[in-house]
């Protein structure tokens, strides 16, 4: 007979299981972020994980292969569906679909997992959480300035100290002007522009040499995989790199200065480029607004900021942590970006055929959590398990007694459970220990006849047991175990929890 097939228990590449303390810390951080967003007047929205692929837009990595870059499938009506690549495209679809009913500007925040069908690597996952906030229907760069200030407040709210981060701001129109000046304007160069954007978005990861290869012929990574480049010539690449490194476009208090090493022709082209000049004017306005609100030391104009997605149409920004960590080879590097975003006035227009201004930013939740852990600011609730009611008698009427105890504890906001396994006393105590239970409740036939329960404080018992060397002495001492009347159970357990500083759910006074 053929062997019965047993699937191998294995986690798919680029995905991760999360448990316990990390999930608790994530919840705590998300609540702090949510509080800042709501303080600024944003309201919650949830969109589904799947969207029609055509709704995700032309910014996807490969239009000819719908499953490249995103995870896609065909529905039973032969339409392509894709797991969302980010939280912005679904927002654009939602706003377009409910445009007449929504207040404008429409201010919303969303948290959820997004999915990338890309090659996984260290710290690079195919599923990860983002937390976004967006304003749709506000044409003024005041909306962009507000988003940048909110990003600063959010970082401080979760525990990143002032001085350990900066929100860097640029404008896609400035970059568009540079692209036009080096001959990459027009719809016919859309693909090359997108490749350039993605190349320079890798600057923090690959440095000047890596970006130069991606702007030119392409780059082969350590595994041998080859990424095709944008095919720029030496002069074109030099201009983009000069902008990226700050040697070609320099931030000032009032905007951006052009410094292109004597390239008079290019400087003249930029000086007469309407997109470039409009972008510089918007940067000056943002600088003035953040200064008026007192954020000038936290929000800075920086012409090297480039967001990789094509849909950005104006100001773009990144929240960067400025403290140093060690890379894989032990070299000091800056922690880098934990959030980013920008203005995207064309996304809703794809559905409505009319311009709808919008701006917003997205926090990389896992990356920000990693930063807080590095800073020692990751807050997790203590890993205290539930109080466990042991099952000493499996008769139905006794099970009902144990279940009532659990229900009474829960009704008073105390986390509790009845042991539901098939083991005896020793396995039940082992289970409670593995669950991190602060206490167990024991009621055998003798305790029931006396109208009592035995409570064993496992934390205190462990401390006392550590000082008892003799096994017989331990059994005789029954450390940290005491009897109370059934009607006093809740009060007694609450006293144990208060001594252990274990949190309750707050469901009752």
UniProtKB/TrEMBL annotation:
BP GO annotations: histidyl-tRNA aminoacylation
Principal location listed in the UniProt entry: cytoplasm
Keywords assigned by UniProt, alphabetized: Aminoacyl-tRNA synthetase, ATP-binding, Cytoplasm, Ligase, Nucleotide-binding, Protein biosynthesis
Subcellular localization(s) per the UniProt record: Cytoplasm
Residues that coordinate or bind L-histidine: 86-88, 116, 130, 134, 307, 311-312
Catalytic EC class: ligase
PROSITE patterns named among the record's database cross-references: AA_TRNA_LIGASE_II (PS50862)
A molecular function (GO) term: histidine-tRNA ligase activity
Classification via CDD domains: HisRS-like_core, HisRS_anticodon
InterPro entries (alphabetical): aa-tRNA-synth_II, aa-tRNA-synth_II/BPL/LPL, Anticodon-bd, Anticodon-bd_dom_sf, His-tRNA-ligase, HisRS-like_core, HisRS/HisZ, HisRS_anticodon
Domain Aminoacyl-transfer RNA synthetases class-II family profile: 29-386
Protein name in UniProt: Histidine--tRNA ligase
Name of the gene encoding the protein in the UniProt record: hisS
